[in-house]
Each structure stands twice: as structure tokens, then as C-alpha cells.
Amino acid sequence: MVLEGQWHAAGAAASTKAKLHIIDKVHYSLELETGKVLSGTLSSLHIGDRLGNIARKITLEDASVFTTKENDAVDTLCKHTSKINTFIHTLESKLKWALMALVLSIFTMFAFFTWGVPWGSKYIAHALPEESNQIIAQHTLDFLDKILFKKTQLDKLQMDKIRTHFQKNVLPLNKENQKIRYTLHFRDWSEGNLSIPNALALPSGDIILTDKFVQLCKTQAEMDAVLLHEMGHVVHRHTLEMIIEGTFVSVAVMLIVGDSDGLADMGVGLGSVLVSASYSRDHESEADMYAFTHMLKANIDPVSFSTIMQRMTVYIEKKLTTNYQHKTSDDTRFDYFSSHPNTATRIEIANQFSNCYKKGLSTCNIRIKEK
Questions:
Q1: What is the sign of the dihedral through the CA atoms of 307, 364, 207 and 253?
Q2: Cβ atoms of 271 and 226 closer than 8 Å
Q3: Could you tell me which of 110, 124, 138 has the C-alpha nearest to residue 243?
Q4: Distance (Å, rounded) from C-alpha 56 to C-alpha 47?
Q5: Are 267 and 138 in contact, with CB atoms under 8 Å apart?
Q6: List of domains in the chain
Q7: Taking a C-beta distance cutoff of 8 angstroms, is the pair 143, 208 a contact?
Q8: Of 116, 201, 307, 319, which sits 20 to 30 A from 337 (CA to CA)?
Q9: b/e string for 165-185 if b means 16 or more Cβ within 10 A?
Q10: DSSP per-residue codes, 10-53
Q11: CA distances, 70 to each of 42, 58, 76, 243 (Å)
């Protein structure tokens, strides 16, 4: 076997034409154009890795270098060529393999953001200590008061009655995480002449009830249903998961190095999330199930959740139709149910739990049909 190429003296840029002769598969002889001959054993040669069709470098014992573009012949010569480098070269040489590698890379990125980040966010949210929830939510209510809420117009006696009932009858139902310190807050949320009915839960256990929500509740059971729903968000750390998904890398680093200083800065981000985003369908469904199962155990008819949901939906739709006919398509402040699970589906599930309640059951197996 004879390979043609260029010979470079050690440390020199100038080159000389040369031929590399392979003798009995054990020795070599390098014949330079000048007539000089270098020889030795093949095992003493250092053959560089292949990269596409770039000239291959073969280093001799004296540190001089022979380069050749006859890569296929060199591959035949060096049986010890790295399998990894061969695989890389195959990808580079074959278009279909390159395309497959591209598709695989795109799928990997898609899978990471579609499944990896949510899974990682859920894992981190539950791995963080309970104190992290307090730190993150510390300034969130102040932030919301500045940009969104107004002072409540509810009567103090009414608020005290709701708080007393919550502490005495609803909180004892929570057996999952008794370290959470739940506190009720009342605020007026108005946009123009529209008073918005809503309930929001911070990861710290602070639950905000708007004036219009309280006014729309006709029974204590209806309010309890929503309070249990919000407690479900807190117990399952849904708000924290949303924050972590938005800042996945930075939160992961904080968890690894144990630095909680940056958590306080996430309070403003949490406020923004609560204003501009809604829980995912899975989060809402999980919070619903938390509420329904606890209502059965507390002997509360889950139909109450269905009733208040329908009343809130009718109120919102009626007000938007009457007062906001010119609402722009990108104005999502009033789209309370826009990214929730299908309201009709949630009501149907509540009704199925209600049927179990009427049968005196403390557990309920249901079939969910998305509409």
C-alpha cells in the first residue's frame, strides 16, 4: 500500500512531497521527494482521528508529520481507529444519517421542554422546604395590592365569620401537610364597573377571596368547595411549579447549591404569574379532586362546587357581553375560565361526586369524559 501526501519536519510549516510505503503490514518507509527515507514500525505511528475528508495527520517517532487525503486507505491501515470517530464520520458523510441526527435533536429538545421541564419543576417544587414557599410569597400580596386589588368593601363581621368557619371547619380537613399556615385575605378586584369573582392561593397558604366571589356564594358549602380547591393548589404546590417552570435553570441551581437568597426575588414573578396566567388543566383537575374527596369526607355535597361554578360563569359571560363588547382579543384579564379545564367537564365530575355523596359513600370512582 502506498499513500501520497506531504511531509512536515517537526515544528516547521514548510512541506515536502512524500510517499508512505506500507511494508508487510508491520513496517513503513516514508520516501521524501528529496530522496531522504524515514522508516520504522507501524505501531510507532500516531494516526489522527478522521474528520470528514480533511487531510489526515500521521505523526512519526521524530515528531515530524505526514499528511494525506487518502482517508479510506488510512482507515484500512489503522484498525484501531476509534469507533466513536467512525460513527461521527458516518453521520457527517451520509445525508440521511445527518437528517436523522437533526430530527433526534429536535425531538430531544421537544421532549425536554414538554415532559422534562414539567417533571423537573414538579420534583423541585416538592423538594424545596416549606420555608421556601414563605420566602417566595412574602412580598407577593403587597405587589398585587399595588397593581390589581383594592381594599375590600365587605363588612368586618362577615369577614370574621368566614375566617372563624374556615379555621374551625375547613382547615381540620387538611391532613396532607399540617405545616402550611393558611390565612384568608379579602380584596376588591374591579376593572371599570366589573367586579371580578375569583379566589387565588399563594404557595405560602395565603388565600385571597374577592368581594364579588363572596357575594356570589349563596351557601357556606359553595364557599367551602372553592376554599378546598385553593387548598389543593397549595398542597400540590401548583403555583410553585408554575414559577419554577418559568425559571427552571436558575431554580435548579439554587436547589443544588442551597442558596435561597434568590427565592425572595421570585415574589414579583409570582404576582405576575397569578395576574397573567392560569393553572394548567392538570393542576385544576388535581385541585378539583382534592376538593371533592375532602368534601365527601366532611359530608359536604360536591354539587355545591358545580353550583358556584355555574353561577360565576353566568355572571362573567353576562357582564362581558353587556359591558365589554369591544374587548380586544389580546385582553385576557377577564378570561377567568379561558385556560381552565372545560367548565362543563368540571361540573359533570362534581355532579358524579354528588351522586356518591347522596349514596352515603366516602370515596367515589368516576369516569371523566372531556367535552
A1: negative
A2: no
A3: 124
A4: 8
A5: yes
A6: 2-93 (2.30.29), 128-358 (no CATH)
A7: no
A8: 116
A9: bbeeebeebbeeeeebebebb
A10: TT---EEEEEEEEETTTEEEEEETTS-EEEEEGGG-EEPPP-TT
A11: 17, 12, 10, 56
Query: Measuring CA to CA, how many Å separate 217 from each of 152, 176, 209, 256?
Result: 16, 27, 11, 45
Q: Where are the beta strands (DSSP E) in the chain?
A: 2-8, 15-23, 27-32, 37-41, 46-47, 56-59, 65-68, 150-151, 183-188, 190-191, 194-195, 199-201, 206-210
CA pair distance 22, 68, nearest whole angstrom: 14
Q: pLDDT tens, 136-191?
A: 777 788 888 888 899 999 999 999 999 999 999 999 988 877 778 899 999 999 98
- Residue 121 CA to residue 238 CA, distance in Å, equals 10
97: pLDDT strictly greater than 80: no
Q: Could you tell me the three cell numbers for 345?
A: 367537564
Instruction: Give the pTM.
Output: 0.60
162, amino acid identity? I
Burial of 371 (0-12, 13-18, 19+ CB in 10 A): exposed
Please state, in angstroms and rounded to a whole number, the distance separating the CA atoms of residues 73 and 51: 14
Are 176 and 182 contacting, i.e. CB atoms less than 8 angstroms apart?
no
Q: Where are the beta strands (DSSP E) in 1-154?
A: 2-8, 15-23, 27-32, 37-41, 46-47, 56-59, 65-68, 150-151
**Smallest Cα–Cα separation from 281: which of 238, 228, 240, 231?**
238
| Interacting residues of 328 by C-beta distance below 8 A, sequence separation 6+ | none
Cβ-proximal residues to 196 (8 Å cutoff; 6+ apart), any chain: 189, 190, 210, 212, 316, 334, 336
Give the closest residue to 245 by CA, choosing from 106, 133, 115, 127.
115
18 bridge partner residues: 5, 32
Q: Which residues pair with 150 in a beta bridge?
A: 188
Q: What is the pLDDT of residue 53?
A: 77
Coarse DSSP helix, strand, coil percentages of the chain, rounded to the nearest 5 percent: 55, 15, 30
